[in-house]
Specification:
One of its GO terms (biological process) is C4-dicarboxylate transport. It is found in: Cell inner membrane. It is a multi-pass membrane protein. The chain starts with a helix and ends in a 22-residue tail after the last helix. The chain has 4 helices and 2 strands, in the order H-H-H-E-E-H. About 70% of the residues lie in helices and about 5% in strands. It has one domain.
Length: about 180
């Protein structure tokens, strides 16, 4: 399951990076054009809104597998290892429940949006349903990472992305 999670998270991380570049280029072009012509480029706002959704939700699983997410270990670092792992297990199981619900809820919204061909009305009519599917994919991929982390905790292995994990695991860069 680890390999599957990484095989899904890596391309999603690349897509998140590409969508960040799309936002950067679109906003830069819009600012330049607005300074020259006095008006915005039609569709750039709508494009960057969708790209922002892709950046955020496609990056979730990659952050989980690479250890680049925000983590606070104020409590777990002070607990005995067994208690800390138990607390992390509880957190990841709760995360699975919440993420499962988020996948279910966002899936229903994405299907509804697609069936209605939901549009955002701005300078251009922009379909919203692709961005709704980005949310579903991002939550589903993060759910897979959470399930892998539950399995890892139950088998005594480090979490995905743990910098103190197995040497050469490829989970995360280590500090020197």
């Amino acid at each position: 399951m680890d390999r599957i999670a990484r095989a899904i998270a890596a391309p999603l991380g690349i897509l998140a990076s590409i969508s960040t570049i799309v936002m950067m280029l679109g906003i830069s072009a819009d600012v330049a054009y607005r300074n020259i012509a006095g008006e915005s480029i039609a569709g750039v706002l709508e494009l960057t809104e969708s790209a922002l959704v892709a950046t955020v939700f496609f990056g979730l699983a990659y952050a989980g597998t690479s250890g680049t997410h925000i983590a606070v270990d104020l409590l777990t670092s002070r607990l005995p290892e067994k208690a800390a792992r138990g607390l992390m297990l509880l957190a990841w199981v709760l995360g699975c429940v919440i993420l499962g619900w988020l996948v279910y809820a966002s899936f229903g919204q994405a299907v509804d949006s697609f069936e209605r061909n939901e549009l955002r009305m701005g300078l251009v009519s922009w379909p919203l349903w692709p961005a709704r599917w980005f949310v579903v994919v991002g939550f589903a991929a993060l759910l897979l990472v959470a399930m892998v982390n539950v399995a890892r905790l139950l088998t005594g292995r480090p979490l995905m992305g743990d910098p103190n994990g197995e040497a050469g695991s490829g989970d995360a860069p280590t500090e020197s």
